[in-house]
Amino acid sequence: MIYQQTINGEVKASGVGLHSGNYIDMKLMPAPPNTGICFRRVDIESKPTTKANIDAVSSTMLGTTLGESGFTVATVEHLLASLLGMGIDNLFIELNNDEVPIFDGSAASFVFLIQEAGIQLQKEQRKYLKIKQKVEVMEGDKYASIIPYDGYRIRLELSFNHPAVDEENKDYEYEFSTDSFLSKIAYARTFGFLKDIESLREKKLTLGGSVDNAIVLDENNVINIEGLRYKDEFIRHKILDVMGDLHLVGAPILGSFFGKKTGHSL
What we know:
This protein is an alpha+beta fold. The protein has helices at 77-86, 108-117, 178-185, 197-202, 233-246, and strands at residues 3-7, 11-16, 23-30, 37-41, 49-51, 57-59, 65-68, 71-73, 91-95, 119-125, 129-130, 135-139, 142-147, 152-157, 171-175, 191-193, 215-217, 253-260.
């Protein structure tokens, strides 16, 4: 039997929001069995709360946003992937602004916070979503599918062409476990293109983005001084995004996912 888990105690961290540019305080707190993952905005007088699930998604523009009617929480995917990766089923997350901090652009800081808090085993059994038949979605040249599988596997094909991305690093298959998440996925950072920054900022996006929290590419190279953490860091980060977005079904998945040009929307 596999039982639900939460964290042992409260942990806090602060950082900038990738899109808003706001400085945000975040607190992670233990939650009872069967609570799920809940985000709470403590900067709003009523302290509204939204559960991390598909029904709460309000936007998928360059990230996944939950909530509506003036109460939103943006860029939740890296944190959700971290909670899946570390086996955390129940958690309260308090924020004093409308976005989860981006930290270094990967899941590493969230993993560190969970490790600092410690993990608490709970008495209720964990539920899984088991895929029993193939499901697929197509939108033009974008494609995603998931089929039955005794485990959790994600395979992606990277679709953009750039001199810094070798052809051999455009296809990656990942078999999920906590150990493999820590060694292969958690440290992969988000990325963006220098040529897009001006137009994105005109739309009030990536206002907090920098080489401190993203891989940035010019026309030919990665401009970050330290370079890449993995030679295929781009596609590994895409897998991190998929893990976070799919975790909005509300339970760990038993199935095999394949995607090409998926993005947050698909």
